[in-house]
């Protein structure tokens, strides 16, 4: 089981240069209040104080993409425009993990990096792509499942409102299969079905070869042996034994 313990943000969207840490392992419900400087009429309360930013930071820290439809460059604080950092800490199977993502500049890729630590040991692979793959493997949930089951946002359709099946978008069947690892079983089942079809085709071809061999053997027998009842009986018994042994080898 995964237990998220800590989320730290710096220069991420509306959070500025001073690091802000959210403790995620506290039991119960957490009320988030603050001051919305963009809403001078009613600036103190629960609206516009960073709840969605926290969800975006958690998703970005884990999956390298936020919940909201925002480019990664636009995640960098608009005022400071540099040195964005998001760190996510969690526990799984007795191990502690820490993911740190850094974007040095709003408009340039130079200096952007991700680090992954397991029990304070750096296990970061050789590229961001491979690091993201390793993180998803450790988490055990793809992004689409995470944003519909772990965190919730108006950006994504709730699970119960999704179609049961769909060829072009998210649907309940795919999510359930991912959640219970049924997709892997389905893929293996499809692979085995294809392999079985190939084996059946090969078996039919082998049986056709046996029939042709028997036909040619019968012709050769008539050329070399006298057509008597005893010879026909011997040849029939031998042919039956030959066919059975050949089919058992297929």
TrEMBL record:
Residues 182-209 form a coiled coil. Gene3D superfamilies: P-loop containing nucleotide triphosphate hydrolases. SUPFAM superfamilies: P-loop containing nucleoside triphosphate hydrolases. Keywords: Coiled coil. Residues 6-211 form the Rad50/SbcC-type AAA domain. It holds the Pfam family AAA_23. The keyword tRNA processing does not apply. GO terms for molecular function: ATP hydrolysis activity. GO terms for biological process: double-strand break repair. PANTHER family: ABC TRANSPORTER ABCH.3. This is Rad50/SbcC-type AAA domain-containing protein. It comes from marine sediment metagenome.
